[in-house]
Amino acid sequence: MSKETLVLDEKALETELCKQIASGEAARKAIRIDTPDTNCSLFDLLAGFEPQVIQDNSDWNDHKYLSQDLFGGITPDIVLRSKTSGENRIVIEVKKTSDFTHKELDASQVLRYFLHLLATTNKRPNGRADISRAVLLAAPKQWFESNSAKPWNHFLKQYQPLATQFEIVLGNIILSA
């Protein structure tokens, strides 16, 4: 199978997940999130707020000139932006069989998303409740069991305490392949 075919298969998973997110409350409740601490659903993270769904688009980044060495050119597969605060609150990376673009253990793609979220959002924007902050990885179960997941597992182990302190959820969404 060519790399182009793999990317198209991954894009189909991404598009299907975006459709689920956009289709409402019942579908959001069905999107389960496994975290090191607990399990919840996307519905729980959204906390009753309706997000703007941004799919694989550089318009997600309202801070394009912030730390270019670290964040320049990164584009998550899916970003859920709060319509209340205007902040990007949830970043979702989607994988099917591919590795991360940046797969270095201490500078991985997901670590860059996490640091961007930490630097550009607030726990309670303007002192008000909002969508929870999260960095999520959506993939079929076999991806999480493969060598491709090594940077993700390293990230979870190293950054879960910091994420917990700043109320950022780190978790897996298991997709049907």
List the helices and strands and how they pair.
Blueprint lengths: L2 H20 L2 H6 L1 E3 L4 E3 H5 L4 E5 L12 H4 L6 E5 L5 E7 L14 H12 L12 E8 H4 L5 H16 L2 E8 L2
User: What percentage of the residues does DSSP assign to strands (E)?
Assistant: 15-25%
Helix amount: 25-40%
What is Rg?
15 Å
> How many β-strands, per DSSP?
7
**What is the strand arrangement across the widest sheet?**
3-4-5-6-7
Mean pLDDT value:
84
What overall form do the CA principal axes indicate?
Answer: globular
Distance between the ends = 16 Å
Please trace the helix and strand order, writing H or E for each element: HHEEHEHEEHEHHE
Structural notes for this entry:
The chain has 7 helices and 7 strands. It has 177 residues and is an alpha/beta fold. It has one domain (3-175). The strands form 2 sheets. The chain has a 5-stranded mixed beta sheet. A two-stranded antiparallel ribbon has the order 1-2. Helix content is 38%, strand content 22%. Mean pLDDT is 84; it is low at 1-7 and 66-71. 32% of the residues are buried. β4 (78-82) and β5 (88-94) form a beta hairpin. It is globular, with a radius of gyration of 15 Å. The protein has helices at 3-22, 25-30, 42-46, 68-71, 109-120, 141-144, 150-165, and strands at 32-34, 39-41, 51-55, 78-82, 88-94, 133-140, 168-175. The protein starts with a helix and ends with a strand.
